[in-house]
Amino acid sequence: MNTEPNRPDPDALLAAIKRSEASQHGGRLWIFFGMAAGVGKTYAMLKAAQERLKDGVDVVVGVVETHGRSETDALLAGLPVIARKALEYRGVTLQEMDLDAILARKPSLVLVDELAHTNAPGVRHPKRWHDVAEILDSGIDVYTTVNVQHIESRKESVETITGIAIRESVPDSILERAEQIILIDITPAELLKRLEEGKIYLGERAETALQNFFKEDRLTALREMALRLTAEKVDNELQSLTAGKGSDRAWKPSERLMVAVSHSPYSAELIRATRRLAFGLDAPWIGVNVDTGQPLSEEDRATLARNLALVRELGGEVITTAEADTGAALKRIAHQRSVTQLIIGRPTRRWLRDTVHGGTLLDQLARESGTFDVHVLRTDWGPGAKAPKRWPFGVEAGIPKYALAAIAVAAIALISWLVAPVLGYRAVGFLFLLTVLSISMFLSLGPVLFAAVVSALIWDFFFIPPLAHFISRSLKTWRWAWYIYWPR
Fold this sequence. Notes:
Layout (H helix, E strand, L loop, with lengths): L9 H16 L3 E6 L6 H14 L4 E5 L6 H5 L10 E5 L2 E5 L2 H7 L3 E4 L15 H10 L3 E7 L4 H11 L9 H6 L2 E4 L4 H9 L7 H8 L4 H28 L13 E4 L6 H15 L3 E7 L6 H16 L3 E6 L3 H11 L4 E5 L5 H7 L3 H8 L4 E5 L21 H25 L1 H16 L4 H18 L7 H16 L3
Parallel strand pairs: 1-6, 1-7, 2-5, 5-6, 8-9, 8-11, 9-10, 11-12
Antiparallel strand pairs: 3-4
Helix pairs in contact: 1-10, 6-10, 11-12, 13-15, 16-17, 16-18, 17-18
């Protein structure tokens, strides 16, 4: 596992290599992207295609829907068009893109409008984006169009904003494959004006549009979503470009938050707090869980799964990594992902462990972060919230930790029994003390106290002469205490 912050992320390198191989062996994809119908995606695509045609590129039209817009129709002039395939379905003749004809023609560039379109029964692929994937795999470049509501990861949010069910979608992997996403952006006011002028829909379709997507508040939300998705694409490209450089300086074009997630029930509060901070900063955020190899109980695993699911539910990205040093893992990921702010909970102090390891997790991060700020959030349980049950002395540590403490004490007792004739019972006492101190570096207070009590009983009963007289000495002590302190 890579723990050096200036070394490139192997996962990022692998992803960059895969993208490079895909671009070398397959076609390239350009997506003309917008917030809603009517922003001018098809117009911009045809205009770009005309420029490529002038440059001598072999361009053909696979399928383009102009919807009767005269300005868009005019841009089809001079572009070779692949005739559509006619299909009979329930007594109706449907026109679909002829994928086989395009593959046989093998142009340099093909125009495929409305990427999220569902094909008619009888076509080789159920969705048009499947057709586009096959075209790209054959080495042909593609220009296509799509709206933000059809992106799978944004579909649910759009349905919440508009109250309209989205029936067609394309996977986000299509966006990742795109050579470039060209955002076609206009203001909601300008789009509504175009609708009123009949440049988008006519008659009843225009009235229906005004009742659904085409409201200024909804269009504003969709526009923000489209802008943000495009910005994320650019940011991912930047990460890919810098992934293999291993630079000590992190590129921080915008705010990016990261929260440390564990099996603690308090992590849920940290996750929600990070989501609020990210929303206020309009910044992406990630939740990181570091698996240090510590065994977890069934309850702890269930809590960790709920915490990671909460990160996904609130729109964050989940990263899980295995590493013995939590601080080193968090610093490495923060550097690789250009994190600007790291959020953690207040760590529990254990003086011996902290002395050996150079302080708490907070001390390590604050001392060595360099490229990011560290926020320590307290858990604030509201009046109606129920804090998780905490037993005194760390009893909630679980049976495995107490068993581990018992095994350690039993092992040192066996060793002490072998060396006691040589070292004496006083030296054996120091061995037990050293064992308890060592356990305190790794376990919570409950198991440590348990180990201390058991060690004291074993030392007194089996090593301090006269042997096996612990009970009699204890009774004698209690008898003297009774005699001295009991009032007469």
